[in-house]
């Protein structure tokens, strides 16, 4: 029988993850399964806690939080034998969605206990691993604004406010994009790189991405008018943004971006800054617990 360590971010989703813990404890006690809980104290704490848990021999490390918590746990357990799991405990739960983890906590516990273990592709950029998605450009500028906090807005309204504020001020940057055939000069609105299909809490930016095909799905979205963007942007939620003519989709194992100036990159709820971004992929490099049953 497997053992489980929960890495809980008590402030994720405004306390959403924290509220799920009693239900999880009930379920795991009833199932007589070995488990332990760790509460994170500050940003970055989850990495060390997950690494420690993996070294202690826990089979499954469960990120109880949003995508930011998933990313920390991932970066703690890469290279260990432990599997990654996640429940819907944050504002954005795109990884949990991507592996079909149920929303209902009891069903999610059953998935954690009996769900199929799959190996999915593992991405790396700027010395940090990712399991779902990364964006550079307009989307990262929006994410940066949201992360810095927009009073009095929270949740989806904060994203909408940040979207419009960014829309008014955003300046495109020149990016050399190299997928192995030499650099292509461009000034796109954004470049998104996905193993999973969605980011930002359900925006299907690379709607055809397959998690274990050994390839990144890449979206290069070319610049368009502000009005056009307001009109077309909602299509990202239904996975139809790729029908817009400014959308160019690619599949590649490796990708190099060279920006004419330092800009933010958003990775699963975290923001990093850089002007050179080298994306590499390790096929089926991470074991994950899915909501699928054998
Ligand atoms: Mg893929």
Features:
294 residues, 34% strand, globular, Rossmann fold, alpha+beta, binds magnesium ion, Tumour Suppressor Smad4, 10-stranded antiparallel sheet
Task: Describe the protein in words.
It is a single chain. The chain is α+β, with helices and mostly antiparallel strands and 294 residues long. The protein has two domains: 4-114, 3-Layer(aba) Sandwich (Rossmann fold); 133-285, Sandwich (Tumour Suppressor Smad4). 29% of the residues lie in helices and 34% in strands. The protein is built from eight helices and 16 strands. The chain has helices at 16-30, 45-55, 67-77, 94-98, 105-114, 138-148, 155-169, 226-232, and strands at 4-8, 35-39, 60-65, 83-88, 117-125, 128-130, 133-137, 175-178, 184-186, 190-194, 198-199, 203-204, 216-221, 247-252, 254-267, 270-289. The strands form three sheets. Strands 5, 6, 7, 8, 9, 10, 13, 14, 15 and 16 form a ten-stranded antiparallel β-sheet that branches. It has a four-stranded parallel β-sheet with strand order 2-1-3-4, sandwiched between helices. Strands 11-12 form a two-stranded antiparallel sheet. A hairpin with a 3-residue loop joins β11 and β12. The radius of gyration is 19 Å and the shape is globular. The two termini are 16 Å apart. The site of magnesium ion has 8 residues, from β13.
| Main beta-sheet annotation | 10 strands, antiparallel
Distinct small-molecule ligands in the complex: magnesium ion
User: How much of the sequence is in beta strands?
Assistant: 25-35%
> What is the CATH class of the largest domain?
Mainly Beta
Output mean pLDDT: 95
